[in-house]
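Example 3.2
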Amino acid sequence: MFLMLMLYGYFLAVVFVAVIALDARGIVNKRETFKSSERYEPRVLVILPAKGTDLDQRGNFLSLAKQDYENYDIVAVVDTPEDEATETAAVAGIKVEVAKGRCKKCSGKNKAIAYALNKFKNYDVYVIADSDIRAGKAWLRKLIKPLADPEIGTSTTFPAFVPVGYGFWSYTKMLWGLVGQSLMSSNRTRFGWGGSLAFKKDLVDKRLMRLLEESKYAVSDDICITKRTKEKGFKIAYVKEAAPIVYTRETMHSFMEWANRQSALTLLGYRGNLYMGVAYYSSELLLFASGIVMAVLVSPLYAVLLLHFAISEYRAFSRAPKMNASIFVIAAFMPALYLYNLVKASRMKRIEWRGRSYAMQH
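Structure, written as tokens:
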């Protein structure tokens, strides 16, 4: 029995060191470096795929239409002229286009992007903006700045999810989104987030159009643009300073549908994240349970295993865009939630998105 406890304690020590090392990487933020130029003012087209409504959509559209960068145009691309977003765009002074073309595999968003890229070819930089983001006035200028560097083909950021009012699942989504910010901080796990993304015209070729319209990745613009960026030998820059806000009001059902869908799309493009995620979050849960049980039954010294959770709580409070006492509780069960989302997503054959159903071709 004693030998078994010794071996288990050694195993826990190895897991503990590995998890703490990953925590340290998340706390120490490396500043992104790239060549820039104050004279870099390319002609930019902001593509705004829109369908239905979002929380304060008018305010979102106005924030995109009133950027402090002069050399840009913005176009909202909708499915039909009757779409609710058409009127909102018109009120904000944004030009509206109805997406044409046939793509059986692609998402409505990819169809909108492909249509805009085909029609508007005389731009140096293309930007994709989701209809639910609220951008600061300098958002566009900051987002395109890294593209002055010849080694960078795409620049991106990641939003802060801000709850509207109080709702447990809205705050859960806020903390869930912090994982995306962590992924962006590492070159190894960084991807182009299609909610706020800029890329050079060099990426726009027949290969990119096939990815957007015909490939198994055609349900996700994030994957298509990230894949083409890497194929062309470009780097992806993360511009934390350009992060927009996404206002959110969630129920348990809407949150789970969103979180499982995001996980499924991530696994579609980066299947290895399933195994890394399962290993990491399982380790977190193992440390949590062992820290409590071993501290009570063996020695109080085992409470050191809970250090990781103290770090997680600190990071949640320090990075959360909106404070609430429930964050302490939510942060504690996030590893179990992430693990559930990954396992659930790995088995999903279809996803629901903006009223449509899409097959997942793993």
